[in-house]
UniProtKB/TrEMBL annotation:
[4Fe-4S] cluster 2 binds at residues 201, 217, 244, 247. It is an enzyme of class 1 (oxidoreductase). This is Epoxyqueuosine reductase. One of its GO terms (cellular component) is cytoplasm. Binds 2 [4Fe-4S] clusters per monomer. The gene is queG. Its cofactor is [4Fe-4S] cluster; cob(II)alamin. [4Fe-4S] cluster 1 binds at residues 191, 194, 197, 251. Catalyzes the conversion of epoxyqueuosine (oQ) to queuosine (Q), which is a hypermodified base found in the wobble positions of tRNA(Asp), tRNA(Asn), tRNA(His) and tRNA(Tyr). It holds the Pfam family Fer4_16. One of its GO terms (biological process) is tRNA queuosine(34) biosynthetic process. SUPFAM superfamilies: alpha-helical ferredoxin. It comes from the Bacteria. InterPro entries: 4Fe4S_Fe-S-bd (IPR017896), 4Fe4S_Fe_S_CS (IPR017900), QueG (IPR004453), QueG_DUF1730 (IPR013542).
Amino acid sequence: MNALKPVDHRNKNTQLIKTEAKRLGFMSCGISKAGFLEEEAPRLEKWLNNNMHGEMGYMENYFDKRLDPTKLVPGSKSVISLLLNYYPEKTQDPGTYKLSKYAYGTDYHFVIKDKLKQLLFFINSEIGDVHGRAFVDSAPVLDKAWAAKSGLGWMGKHTNLLTKQLGSFYFIAELILDLELEYDTPVTDHCGSCTACIDACPTEAIVEPYKVDGSKCISYFTIELKNEIPTSFKGEYDDWVFGCDVCQDVCPWNRFSKSHREPLFDPNPKLLNMSKKDWEEITKDVFNELFKKSAVKRTKYEGLKRNINFLKD
């Protein structure tokens, strides 16, 4: 008599997770087998060797863990990649100093971490004793590479993840688990011969298709750089004081962006109506009120003032 084969629950568990992810508000969920990212290794090494990370010294840390989640989360078998839309219904008044759209509302780290905790709790409740960790852009995880590997989109020439359905205005997060699941496959690249993002970048940070010199990017200067902004970039900033959306704004695929449904990402109404004069006269108290739970707090009041003064002077 033949022994009974063990029941394979991978399909059922995969569907349970994807359904719950959708219920929690994630727009997409893709899954990859945890392992070494062979294609990314030489790219990352070359990017670091060419100092394209500027003063972002943390990018040099945990090189092995950055490329292999099994070193980051021992025993891990699956990387669950999730996308959360942040495209706003309303944007700032034209002609004012600009913030990247992702920073309009509550800091995404808090919003997404809470959803990931709920998803992990659901997995443990419905599937069993599953161990893993949640990541939101705050650990050595190559989130765009994993999202592309799991079929959620392709890496555009501006190195942001792109989808045909909704463009690129969304956050990427991961759950890395010691649970075997059914794995998705990558999608094809649909950038074609388009160079809109390369042509539009104010500081020519997209040095070639699919390669960004982080040390030339407006987002780097306005958020990551702690010293004075080099005067050689004077007049190239297009009024951005926190982050930059130019490469995404000009991308043809972002014509299909739809407004998010996450109330926590809605901006403070005062923020959208601020004039240049309001920004130039912003006090520390107003900064603290407007950006109490915002990602803009990362640059601090002094950093924001530095960015505004650089454009104003």
